[in-house]
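Researcher: Let's try something more involved. This one mixes different molecule types, so please make sure each is placed in the same coordinate frame as the others.
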Amino acid sequence: MSLRITFITAGRILRQLLNDRRTMVLILAMPSLLIALISAIMDSSPQVFNSVGLILLAFFPFMMMFMITSITLLRERTGGTLERLMTTPTRKLDLVGGYAIAFGVAAASQTAIAATVAYAFLGLETAGPAWAVFLIAIAASLFGMALGLFVSAFATTEFQAIQFMPVFVVPQLLLCGLIWPRDQMAGWLQGVSDVLPVTYAVKALTEVQVNTETTAAMWGDLSIVAAAVLVATALGAATLRRRTN
Amino acid sequence: MPPTPATAIAVDDLVVDRGGQPVLRSVSTRIAAGSVTGLLGPSGSGKTTFIRAVVGTQKVRSGTVEVLGHPAGSKPLRSRVAYVTQDASIYRDLSVKANVAYFAALYGRSRSEAMAAIERVGMGDHAHNLAGNLSGGQKTRTSLACALVIEPEVLVLDEPTVGLDPVIREELWDQFRALAKQGATLLVSSHVMDEADRCDRLLLLREGRFIADDTPADLRAATGTANLEAAFLHLIRELEKAN
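Model: All components are placed in one shared frame. Result:
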């Protein structure tokens, strides 16, 4: 892996994002607006918003990274640029690292804005520190990126890539404990929930919610998310083939 | 037989299948360093597959492809061989300059070298335009600039002149000749016969086999024809008679 090429690649991907003003606005503003909407919906129950709003702070970057990574990587695959890159000194990990840095920066900006809005204007409260929420949100977003990278190999059109959202993103949203407590789900469904990485991001957030200091349980959950990022990245990198038919 | 130093590309008994169908049926050739070789044939004859095998992005069933003494696509070649795909492989949401500067940077080349490459393909006036807004020919030239900027020892181009203005086409061919004169090896595919005369050597590909591997002059002499289009036809008829 070459750090120089990784950063050159990240720079190129960020420049592509910056050139697309409309996408930039959507990435930066949408999560804040949606969290504000949720806060207004739950106007009479600030306690519920405290847990739902917090989970959404991590879920939006996960979802966004999944979407933009699967679409941009699909473009690289179908537009011939991936094949071209594979004939240059760029290695697979340089490319994946470039994506992680570029979209990581995008996710961090998005989360910073959404968290500021939630804490400062929507009355979101957590016992633990905001930086821990930020860290968990970044880990979740990197998992979204790695999953999107992997999934892009199975789509041949952007239309198909969008259809992967309900397959890979929605179940994690339904089962992570956001809409229904995990311990009240059917037993087998709890088992499914246990193997979905977003579940652990949510568990880590719950730790921050109730404890003033970061806990060992939070770090444990965060490491599971980090491990999932590594596994999904390895799987995704394996789908980048130098030689194809 | 190991390639002699003067051989830039050595292909031996290359067989490629795609989707269970044979695309290349045991082709072999030697391409000399510092030459321009034209790869000609109708669409569907296997030109792109052959080119992808040379740059090492094509899965092959059997046979060997060596470039500059290394297996095609291997690590030492990635900074010495440049590939221009048939459809311009550039980023539509980046400007011409950003595209060329990106590929330049991957090879440690500067932005001023990128600008020089853009000027060489006649895209200087469009350097700040988004690639997605360019015409087909302009996209092709941008894609070409991304390859020229690294001053490759081997330049592989898949139909680089399709849809180009005759003046630009003329200029590009002059550049290809100039590059070869400086020692670069060029492999250029085309389905336009009038470009064949600009090549040092021609590979005529039909249905996955080379039906000729010769200089334009020798090809004309051997077939007793005045132009290469007629020579190609003559060879096909001969083959059909033989079958």
